[in-house]
Design goal:
alpha+beta
Length: 149
């Protein structure tokens, strides 16, 4: 059997979550969720985990530190990830993370509402049957037959 197939702890994601928030963000969020499940750090009514970007990169070695930073920043901007600094030493800039599960639920519900609304599958120009002339010299224009299906 190949040593490249699940002989170590896998990184798991939900495909639907990745489609909604992005692959990198889904992986980071899932990894933080995993650690929150075993964390003993309860502060201000929340469970927290902490890691430096370099420590996250050791867990996700297929990404650069800058990719992890972008994923975390994106999750913070979406409001799904809460960051704080609970370190004893002020010079210690290690970030602490918690997931806003209520916000995640609201986010999921809003996406389901949008999904329920009908979505037009093609651009309006496709419906009108009107084509726009482009600024291509007539010597290079070629008429292409149109098929009606």
């Amino acid at each position: 059997m190949s040593r490249l197939l699940i002989n170590e702890s896998p990184v798991m994601i939900i495909p639907g979550l990745a489609a909604k928030i992005g692959l990198n963000e889904a992986v980071v969020l899932q990894q933080i969720h995993y650690w929150l499940g075993i964390s003993k750090h309860k502060i201000e009514g929340r469970t927290w985990v902490y890691n430096t970007y370099e420590e996250w990169q050791k867990q996700l070695p297929f990404w650069s530190v800058s990719t992890i930073k972008r994923g975390i920043r994106s999750l913070e901007m979406l409001g799904l990830l809460i960051s704080a600094n609970f370190n004893q030493l002020k010079m210690d800039k290690t970030k602490w993370y918690s997931i806003d599960y209520e916000k995640l639920l609201e986010f999921e519900e809003s996406l389901q509402e949008r999904k329920a609304a009908p979505i037009k599958e093609h651009a309006p120009e496709e419906d009108s049957g009107v084509t726009k002339e482009s600024a291509v010299p007539s010597s290079t224009k070629k008429e292409i037959p149109c098929r009606n299906y």
